[in-house]
Amino acid sequence: MFKLKRRTVAEASFDVGNNVLMLLICFLTLYPVWYVVVNSFNDGNDAMLGNIYWWPRVFSLDSYKAVFNSNGIMLAMGVTVAKTVIGTAVHVFFTAMVAYALSNKELLGRKLYMTLGTITLFFGGGLIPSYLLIRDLGLLDSFWVYILPAAFSFYDLIIFMSFFREIPNGLEEAAQIDGANEFKIFWKVIIPVSMPVVATIALFHGVYQWNDYFAGVIYINNSNLQPIQTFLYRIVAESSSNQMVSAMAGSIQKSVTSQSVKLATMVVTTLPIVLVYPFLQKYFVKGMMIGSIKG
Description:
Elements: H1 2-40, H2 44-47, H3 62-69, H4 71-102, H5 110-122, H6 127-136, H7 154-164, H8 169-177, H9 182-193, H10 195-211, H11 214-219, H12 228-237, H13 241-249, H14 258-288
Helix pairs in contact: 1-14, 3-14, 4-7, 4-10, 4-12, 8-9, 10-14, 12-14
């Protein structure tokens, strides 16, 4: 009886310590985000004095006004939204279609395709061959450089195939009896019952498309085609960012600094994807459980 009581106390102590540790990890994870938000709402010149940790000392929306008054930033935001929506739709559709074909064990050459695809998970051509390929395809300074190279992922294909294997064959057989061809079966039967994995891959690729700045830096010279992340990267990287901020701020220049505009831009670029995530979370959890239970 004494041993049982000591064990219970030990377990309770472990639970308390575990909860404290989780709270500490949450704090360390969320506080940097809170720090950025707080400083973005503070007067830029006052923020340069430091010692702002929890609340804005001199509340100001001038940095956000500078962001939204800039035609360059709003144009870049439009490019980002377009490439995220179109790129995600193309990626999910094309990858799912290839995965559906390869999930058919009777497909001729299936093992060869799977072997070639697996090799691409471990080996890549590198930046220079990729750039030469994009150039020869005529995709430099083109919006489609964001879409076509990222239209397919073998890693995502494996996730799709794992889900498609769990779909009963009776669904496809019933559709075939009704006269449906392979594409109609894929579009009308397979995709509707595969929404958990579709939402999961859409979330993965949507976040990638939203956060990607590298393609804009390497393949795009036209400022009208650069996404918001590339625009932010150039604000941070360019030594003349103060001149850029002066042009953006205009009449509110006195209360805006390059640092305050960086922070405001970071909040503006991060907020949309944060707002979308809760709506996809339930599908995301289901998708992550794919293949974890057999039988």
